[in-house]
Every structure is written in C-alpha cells, then in structure tokens.
Amino acid sequence: MFTISQVSEKTGLTPYTIRYYEKIGVLHEAKRRNGGARVYSESEVSYIQCLNRLKKLGISLEEITEFTRDGCVLDKIQHGEDLVNFTPTLHKRIEILEKHLVELEAKRQELEYIISLTKEKLALYQELMKEDMINTR
C-alpha cells in the first residue's frame, strides 16, 4: 500500500491533484488507515498513472471520467466478462480517442511547420555568421 505522497512521487501528480480527482469523481474514494490517511494499492497507482497519461493527451476531466466509467475494460474482458456488456463503453472510448487523435494530428502539423521555420532561420543566421567571420579577417 502506498501513501498519497508516495503516489505523488510515482505519478508526478501533486497530492492536491489526487485529492481533487477523488473529489470530482475521476478517482474512487481511497481506502483510509485508522488515522484517516489515504492508502493506495499498486493497481490504483497504475490507474492514476493512466489518468495522468489521458490528461497529458489533452483529454478533459469530464471526458476522462466518461472514459474510465467502467474501469479497465480490457482487464475485465481478460478475466472472462462478456465483451457485449462493454459495447457502449467501447464506442464512447473510440469516439473520445478519435476526437483527440484529430486534435493531436493538427498539433503535430503545426509543430512540423514551426520546426521547419526554425531550421530555416537557424541556417540563415549561421550563414550570416560565417559571412561575418570571413569579412572580418
């Protein structure tokens, strides 16, 4: 079992963020020790890391809540639950991921354009510096 501080170190999320995710329902309420301190299992830490990756993709907390509503569907299917039970969930997850893939592709194109411009400017400035060095000899 891990404390909230240990989970924070493992996930890169602050304890405040972890408590906030719990408060808004993105995370289930953590188990508590006798003194009231939150404790998390290894699988809960993995789940929080997954939430963090979804957030880094630019997925909103509302969409993350929807995305994770039925927990880890792949685990449930691997443990024998019927895929038919998760068809609506899988459709919603596909919809969320497709939307964000389009947004990520647009960002990538923009980054590629900015990288190209930066390389052009860098080459131009390097060429100017070479000319300046030749002229000052």
UniProtKB/TrEMBL annotation:
GO terms for molecular function: DNA binding; DNA-binding transcription factor activity. Pfam families: MerR_1. Residues 1-70 form the HTH merR-type domain. SUPFAM superfamilies: Putative DNA-binding domain (SSF46955). Keywords: Coiled coil, DNA-binding. Residues 94-121 form a coiled coil. PANTHER family: REDOX-CYCLING DRUG-SENSING TRANSCRIPTIONAL ACTIVATOR SOXR (PTHR30204), TRANSCRIPTIONAL REGULATOR, MERR FAMILY (PTHR30204:SF83). This is MerR family transcriptional regulator.
